[in-house]
Each structure stands twice: as structure tokens, then as C-alpha cells.
């Protein structure tokens, strides 16, 4: 009887220890699952914030104000109030959209590269910044490689930033309003597109 009792006790202890071990493993697995879920939630939140922040930097609409010394075009290809099809893809949903011409101006337009004042990623070959939006630029046109400070805020972090000229065009630029083809909100008084980036609408 003593042997049987001792064996029973030993078996009970082994089972109890096994149950404890199983419980601890289950708790550990639950803790790991919870940590994985929290990590996924944190990553999703960061991605959402990055997406919102990225869109926050894009200020494609404007008040419609232009520099005082900017000259209206005398005989633009597209008259104010007329419509045209956008052939440029400065932003998603822009190419192929129908635009209303809000203004036409004769100037020198520059494609520029710069690093935003707010610490964003470097921007290369941004189109367009016009001569009148540069701070004390001297006579137009500036040559590729020359630099000037931008006095405009087409995009967040642009105002007051030094830009390097990539290319220059003496042309007519247009301020336009359009609704993106991807279903985004209407973009009002977008600056700028050139005549070469517009085509006539089909009658």
C-alpha cells in the first residue's frame, strides 16, 4: 500500500507540474499574440500618419493670387474661362483631366530641385516655379545650375528655400482648376502648367 501511495503521489506531482508548464506556455503564447497585434496596430497607425503627412505636404490648390509684376499673356493659346485637357502628370489624377483656365501669363518657367525647409525629402525637377516667384533673381532667364530663393508655397516647405535651376523656358503659363481623374477633390487655381502641357477639348 505504501508503494502504491508513493507512486500515486509521484504521478500526481508530475501531472501537476505538467499542467503548470502547459498553463505557462499558453499564457506566453497569448502574450506573444497580443504583442504581435499591438505591433501590427502601431505599424498601421504609422503608415496612416505617413500617408496623411505626405498628402499634407501637397498644396496643389491656391488662393489664385499672383505676383504683382507678373504680366498677363497678350494672346494666349487658351483664353481665360476656356477649357483644355491636361497632358502633364505633375500629380496623381492630373493627366487626362479637363481643366478650366483661370489665368494666362507670359514669363520664364523653371524646373527646380530643392530640399524643403521643413526637413522633407529632396524634391527634384519640380515643375513649375516662375521667375516672379523668386526672391531678387535678377534678369531672366536664370541658367541651369544657378540658384535662387523661392518666394512661393506651391508645396509645404517651399517658401524661403533655395532652389537650383534644372531648366528654363520662356513661355506662357496657365493657372487652372480641375477635378482629378482618380476621384479626388477639386484642385482650384493650380500653379502652373505650360501651353505644351495642355490640349484642346473635343467639341
UniProtKB/TrEMBL annotation:
Residues 41-53, 66-79 have a biased composition (Acidic residues). Residues 81-131, 144-194 form the DUF1541 domain. Residues 41-79 are annotated as: Disordered. This is Uncharacterized protein DUF1541.
Amino acid at each position: 500500500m505504501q508503494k502504491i501511495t508513493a507512486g500515486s503521489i509521484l504521478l500526481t506531482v508530475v501531472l501537476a507540474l505538467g499542467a503548470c508548464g502547459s498553463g505557462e506556455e499558453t499564457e506566453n503564447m497569448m502574450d506573444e499574440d497580443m504583442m504581435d497585434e499591438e505591433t501590427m496596430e502601431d505599424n498601421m497607425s504609422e503608415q496612416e500618419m505617413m500617408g496623411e503627412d505626405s498628402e499634407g505636404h501637397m498644396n496643389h490648390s491656391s488662393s489664385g493670387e499672383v505676383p504683382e509684376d507678373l504680366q498677363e499673356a497678350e494672346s494666349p493659346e487658351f483664353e481665360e474661362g476656356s477649357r483644355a485637357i491636361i497632358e502633364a502628370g505633375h500629380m496623381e489624377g492630373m493627366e487626362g483631366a479637363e481643366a478650366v483656365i483661370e489665368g494666362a501669363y507670359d514669363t520664364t518657367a523653371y524646373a527646380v530641385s530643392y530640399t524643403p525647409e521643413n526637413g522633407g525629402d529632396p524634391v527634384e525637377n519640380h515643375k513649375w516655379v516662375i521667375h516672379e516667384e523668386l526672391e531678387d533673381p535678377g534678369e531672366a532667364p536664370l541658367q541651369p545650375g544657378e540658384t535662387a530663393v523661392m518666394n512661393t508655397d506651391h508645396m509645404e516647405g517651399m517658401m524661403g528655400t533655395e532652389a537650383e535651376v534644372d531648366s528654363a523656358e520662356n513661355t506662357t503659363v496657365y493657372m487652372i482648376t480641375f477635378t482629378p481623374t482618380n476621384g479626388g477633390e477639386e484642385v482650384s487655381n493650380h500653379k502652373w502648367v505650360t501651353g505644351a502641357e495642355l490640349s484642346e477639348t473635343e467639341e
